[in-house]
Structure formats: structure tokens, C-alpha cells
Write a structure and sequence with these properties.
alpha/beta; TIM Barrel; Immunoglobulin-like; 2 domains; 6-stranded parallel beta sheet; globular; hydrolase; Aldolase_TIM
Amino acid sequence: MGNTKNLSPLGLLSLATTGAALVSSKGSAGRLPALGWSSWNEYGCDINETVFLDTAHLLIDLGLKDLGYEYINIDDCWSDKEKRRDPVTNEIVVDAEKFPNGIDTLADRLHNLGLKIGIYSNAGTSTCGGFEASLGNEETDAATFAKWGIDYLKYDNCAVPEEWYDDWKYVPENWFGGGANENQDDGEPVNSKTDQPAPSGYDWATSNSAERFRRMRDALAAQEREVQFSLDWDMLEVGNGDLTLEESRSHFALWAALKSPLVIGTRLVDIKPEILAILANEELVAFNQDPTHPAEYWSGESVRGTHVFVLNTLEVAAKKEVAFGEVPGLDARRRYVVHDMWTGKDLGYFKGSFEIDVKAHDTAALRINEVGKCGGKHH
């Protein structure tokens, strides 16, 4: 596809993100990217029990549950900001106005619908919204979450106390030759003793940040209940803000391709049909959930064939070429059927290469099969 070889770092990103969720010996959580919905992007702190129950029913009614979307995740602001912790049990106190029946009752109701429930905490002294967090109380909070019936924990990184600062600043944009200024204020939490990046070969597994997150990982693993520990990419922005339809498609397609969690971050009430069509695209969700090893390039194998994603970063439409000889697993000498995963239609038979017109900021999502071996169908 012209510059396929230059895109390999994204494959490394996919491996990094998919490896961030806890996979316990008790079950299968985290073996595939999580599918679900989270409250933060659209509701912020304006949450209550009704928001999550209504969203759960919409997830079912809109057919998203049938595609595998199963987590209903409570983000920040669910606890009592004043009471913080119970003086006897040391458990985080739930906001009784937002959740008058408790988190455990909400969990029961969601489980009865065949869904799962997620919650939010933070590896610091308070959450990003200023609510009670879990640093120093990991065992208590993990046991509390398990007791309530929680299935998923999103764990954030705000309000890190100075004694937990790292020796070096975390600057991943420099790893692949990026030109970021290490001294710039990038809006990230301050949690390092210096503005200097780590020296070459530094093992981040020995850092204080790694230890902070390991403590909650181990506390969750010690529970009888399996809880997925989420350090992956966060919520989708599909359907939010000023994204064009093409940009929403690109966002979703590439997150699916990189095997990232697909956690919806937009309101399901009165969702636009064209946005729902993106989130409910069966072929892209199936590729995201396929157990085959994650793609290392902008291509990857599944049980249905070879999938290729072509992103147009230009401000204008452009013709893009997929050179079969540059796609891992394909052979320029063979004849292939090219299938459009967005429309669900075959685009024809091709040998050597294939060209497609891609709108500005859009992503072509293609499945390519050798003639006669088309995902179980014969051509």
C-alpha cells in the first residue's frame, strides 16, 4: 500500500494497549478488548443510578449488547466527596443522592439484564475530579469492589504524592524519534522528580508508577471475583464534539484495528443513525474481537481473511493504493477479492494491487481474500 512498512510503530502501540488489562487465572476477562459504554465524556459528574439503567436498556434495545457491548461503566464522581471513607470499615462512601440504592443494587440489576458493571478509581490521593482515590487503600477498595459485584475497574493517574514521584519523566513521544520538547507543559500530571526523560534502556517496571499500579493489580487478583483491570486506551469520542462523520469512522476503524477497547463515550438517547451504524458495524467489531494475534501493521489476519485499513490524513480526498506484495500474508502474483467492511459489499477481483478513493480523514476498511477462499464463501 505504498508506505505500509512505515506504519509498523502502530503495531507496537496495539501490543502495548492490549497488554494493559488484567487477565486473571479465574476467567477470560482481558483476553479480548473490552466492549461497553462509559459515562464520562457525555455526563461528567452529572450522573445517577437512572443514567446507567436507562443506558443499559438502550444498549439492549439498539442491538449493541448482541454485538458484545457488555460493560456499563461508572466513571469519576460516584462517591461522597465530603464523607470520603467510612470511619469503621474504611470503605469509600457512595454518594447516596446519586445512588440511593447503592452500587451493589445497581450491579445486581445490570447483571440481571445480562450486562456487566465497571467503576472508576485512581492511583493517587484523590481522583481527577477530587473524589476519594485508592493509593494506600488498594486491598480495601479491591475487596469492596468485588463485594459490590464490580466487573471492571478503570484506574486513573491523578494527584500523585511527591513521595511516589518517578526518577524520570515519561516521554514516550521521543521513543520513535519524535521532536517533542521534554520541558514543555503538556498538561499531564506532574509525577517525576525531573523534567528529563529516562536514559536509554531504563526499565520502567522498576518505577514508582509501575509499583502504584501493581498494587491494585495484585489486590484485584487476590479477590474471589474476577475484575478486569483497565489501563488501556479510554473511551471512544465517536459521535461527540465537532468530529465529522468521516473522522468518527476513522476513529472507530483504527481503534478496532489496533485491538483497543471499544468503550462508547456518547449518549445513546436519540443517537444519530449514522453514528449508531459506526458503533454497530458487525464486521469491524468482529475483527476487534477476533482472537487472532493483533495486527503489527495497518493489516491483520482474522478467521475471515486479511484485513487492511487505509487512513487518509489529508484535507482532501485521495486515491490510495493497496499493493498486495507489501501486505503481510498476501502475494502480488495471486488474484484476490477485495471486500468493503463498511458497506458489506465486494469491490471486485484484483491482482497485484487495488486502488480506492478515500475521503479526507476517512478510513477504508477492507477485507482481502484469495479467490475461492473468501471467508468461507467461494467466488
